[in-house]
Amino acid sequence: MTNSIFPPEFLWGVATSAFQIEGAIREDGRGSSIWDTFGTSAEIACDHYHRYHEDVTLMAELGVGAYRMSVAWPRIQPDGRGAPNPRGIAFYDRLLDAVCAAGIAPVVTVYHWDTPQALEDAGGWLARDTAERFAEYAAILGAHFADRVKMWIPINEPMVTTIYGYAIGEYAPGKTLLLDAIPTAHHQNLAHGLAVQALRAAGARSIGTANHHAPIWPASDSAADRAAGVWLDALLNRLFADPVLLGEYPREIAPHLPEGHAEDLPVIAQPLDFYGVNFYEPQGAAAPGPGNPLPFELREIDGFPKTTNGSVIVPDAMRELLVGFRERYREKLPPIYITENGCSFDGINDAERIDFLDRHLHAMRSAMDAGVDVRGYFVWSLLDNFEWSQGYRPRFGLVHVDYATQRRTPKDSFTWYQKLVKP
């Protein structure tokens, strides 16, 4: 593949998140996050806090036009409220200056799952007040960094926080509320809308989203399996896209939302400059079996190869998702950026990753040919990093990280992507 099949202005980038790479969790006045107390440790991670110059140099060598990063909320507000921590602000000043000096556009995610523990102790995303605290945090970032940030993403993948963090307990904060976790989705949606307002007031130039989305594949054509697929689509996809783009919630979800949620919809549905799609794989669904309190069951999708962390590889599902999004939201859908796409494979000679990325880019190009307005693509991830509840085992990076020595080694996929994005 060459980039000649994409528009000249197409934006090529890479992505990371603060908790997964920074380390230095006890430095510069940073407070504790829910992940620090969840029983997993990213105390060193990729030591990006101390090695960011090396990592920015790698991005410059790679030749990407944009770097999607996140800011650690506890590094800016150790307790999730109040005046900003000047040492945390100073770190991101240094980082953003280095990225800009390398000719790379910063794309900043305000929140990538690292809620300050003090806010979680006060209710976390189950509490409406957290949305207000988040707006104050976003305003701080806007005031300090809007002059250098090209694009803003308030919240990364709110579905993951709701489902993995509050519904099934696989991620921090480890709650198992099942459908009673749905209010956390509304409060994140509200936080998104309030943050958009705060960032625009601070002079932010371009604001969008980064939502996880997946086409839902029923296990069979039976009415029960298809109904389960509709419910799962409402929970994983429409719960987050519909309020932002249409100003309404899916009817399946409405009974589980907090009282008075409709009054927040005008704030949630702020006009956006782009819509970020994080895509990895489709999701299977089936009618629930006996004893299942949910209106669906998750089903593994058979017949496709898998990555080393068990994700099925179905590149055409990306085309299916993007075309379906255009058909569903039509004129309400702003230009799309693929804000994450990537895979876990071992080794520096990573032909499997090259094949994965190449095939997904062809699928994305097919969606563009079908009329979907895609403006950019970000590989997850620049570096091997701390992968949440899976620790350091999955390796998603274009750059191999030896966690014992912190040595960075570009993989074959790094060279492949370097040639692809070269003008």
TrEMBL record:
<feature type="active site" description="Proton donor">
    <location>
        <position position="157"/>
    </location>
</feature>
<dbReference type="InterPro" id="IPR033132">
    <property type="entry name" value="GH_1_N_CS"/>
</dbReference>
<feature type="binding site">
    <location>
        <position position="280"/>
    </location>
    <ligand>
        <name>substrate</name>
    </ligand>
</feature>
<comment type="similarity">
    <text>Belongs to the glycosyl hydrolase 1 family.</text>
</comment>
<keyword id="KW-0136">Cellulose degradation</keyword>
<keyword id="KW-0624">Polysaccharide degradation</keyword>
<protein>
    <recommendedName>
        <fullName>Beta-glucosidase</fullName>
        <ecNumber>3.2.1.21</ecNumber>
    </recommendedName>
</protein>
<feature type="binding site">
    <location>
        <position position="112"/>
    </location>
    <ligand>
        <name>substrate</name>
    </ligand>
</feature>
<dbReference type="InterPro" id="IPR001360">
    <property type="entry name" value="Glyco_hydro_1"/>
</dbReference>
<feature type="binding site">
    <location>
        <begin position="387"/>
        <end position="388"/>
    </location>
    <ligand>
        <name>substrate</name>
    </ligand>
</feature>
<feature type="binding site">
    <location>
        <position position="380"/>
    </location>
    <ligand>
        <name>substrate</name>
    </ligand>
</feature>
<dbReference type="Pfam" id="PF00232">
    <property type="entry name" value="Glyco_hydro_1"/>
</dbReference>
<keyword id="KW-0378">Hydrolase</keyword>
<dbReference type="InterPro" id="IPR017736">
    <property type="entry name" value="Glyco_hydro_1_beta-glucosidase"/>
</dbReference>
<dbReference type="InterPro" id="IPR017853">
    <property type="entry name" value="GH"/>
</dbReference>
<feature type="binding site">
    <location>
        <position position="156"/>
    </location>
    <ligand>
        <name>substrate</name>
    </ligand>
</feature>
<dbReference type="GO" id="GO:0030245">
    <property type="term" value="P:cellulose catabolic process"/>
</dbReference>
<dbReference type="GO" id="GO:0008422">
    <property type="term" value="F:beta-glucosidase activity"/>
</dbReference>
<feature type="binding site">
    <location>
        <position position="20"/>
    </location>
    <ligand>
        <name>substrate</name>
    </ligand>
</feature>
<feature type="active site" description="Nucleophile">
    <location>
        <position position="340"/>
    </location>
</feature>
<dbReference type="GO" id="GO:0005829">
    <property type="term" value="C:cytosol"/>
</dbReference>
<keyword id="KW-0326">Glycosidase</keyword>
<keyword id="KW-0119">Carbohydrate metabolism</keyword>
